[in-house]
Structure formats: structure tokens, C-alpha cells
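Researcher: Please translate sequence to C-alpha cells.
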Amino acid sequence: MIDAILHTDPSRYETVVEQVRALCDQGVTTLNIDSNCQTEVRQALTRALLITGDLSHQMRTCETANAWASLLQSELCLQGDREKELGLPVAPIRDRSRQPHRADFQLYLGWSRIAPLLGAQVWFFPTLEPAASQLKDNASSWAKELQSSGFESQVEQASLNPGAGRAKQICVLLDASRPYPLVKGNGESRSGQDESPCSQNRKVLGQARRPSDQGSKGSNESASTAASLHKPGNPPSRPPAMVREVRRWQEEKMTPVSPMSPSQMP
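Model: Translation complete:
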């Protein structure tokens, strides 16, 4: 659980998305997980679920989502006020004088954070489909609100995707059967390094493919690409630094401490 909490850090978000989307691309489901890597798959899904739960207001009814969104922005402003008192730099979303329009900020969160993860999680947990449907409705509502308000987008990267455009992209990202182009800070897409769970020397997880992919040329290319990532010659990916530190902490905690001899006592 410590590992999942550490991965709520924004700097680890891209890794979480890449891992979960990679499992979808491999056709892994909760019914065909390789017994050799159940722990890794469970860990990847736990990270994703925790991030989604942290911003779950986006999947509530529009009225509830807007109320929580206002509370979120108020909380961010309080944090920004404290940062100013301490002489620390304040991000625009935490600066009262520069805070973006509520709808603008929510569209940014949905497009850059929730939709990519939720789309992948629906593949594993079909019962989340109503949540995805509600997010689509909310995104459409926020786009209309932003347009009618006359505000220009103030959120980072949002200038590349006006309100209506981001609402459409949210709908696309919620479809787990489509490829997900991970967005960098400058708005360019990237494929990223293979950090998928179970990427060590073993076969691609799960033989079942998405029905929409069966018998298509794209599925063959996807399968060959996934298989190339799992060739025995490829070295296993190294865990992120944060994860290594947590594992070291866990190992030290489990190591029994030998009693001190009288001569060693202070």
C-alpha cells in the first residue's frame, strides 16, 4: 500500500498509466492473469485505482462533481496562501489571483489524469462503465460552461486543446480498445519506455485479445510488438527509485535485530 500511495505523486503518474495500458494491450484480464506475476498486476491496478479514487468526484453526478470541484480549488488556494507565507513558489492552480475557471481545470484533470486510467480500468472491471459514462457527460457539461463563460483556457497545456476538443478527447481516452498517446509537458505524444508489469523473461500475459482486434492486421502488429518486449534477450526493467527505497525499507523492517552484547552497550 505504501508503494501505491507513493505513486500518487504526479511525477509517477505516467509510469502508472503506461503499466495499466500495457496490460490492456496484451489482452490481460482478471481471469487470465499469469500466476507468475499476479503480484505485479495487482500492484499496477492498485496504483491506478488509488489515483482514480483520489479524483473520483469527476465521476459523480454533475451537481456533486461541481460542488467537490469548488472545494478542491478552495483547498488548493489555501495551500497556495501558505506557500506564499513561506516564500515558496506558487503554481497558477494554487494562486488565487491566477486560478483557472472551474470548468477549465476540471477538463484538464479529466483529459490528463482520469480518462486515460479509467478507460484502462473499465477493461479490467466492466462494472466501472457507468462511471466512465458519467465522466463523458460531465466533460460535455464543463465544455459548454467554459464556452458560455467567455474565459480563455488558463491551465497548462490547455491552449492546445480548447474545451470542446478536450471533452472529445476524454471520450476517446475512455475507450480502452484504442491506443493511448501519452502526453508530455509540451503536448507531444510519446510511446515511453517499457515499464509494464511482468516485463521480465516470460511470455506475453494472456492469450485472449480484444474482440475488435481479432483477425485484424493491427492485432498482429500489436502482438508482435508486445512479444518483442518480452524476448529473453531483453533485460528486465529496473524498478523506479522510489519503489526501490520502499522495498529496501520493507526488507530492513523484516530483518531481525540481533541483541547487543554488554561490551557494545553505551
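Researcher: Any highlights?
Model: Residues 15 and 195 are 7 Å apart (CA to CA).
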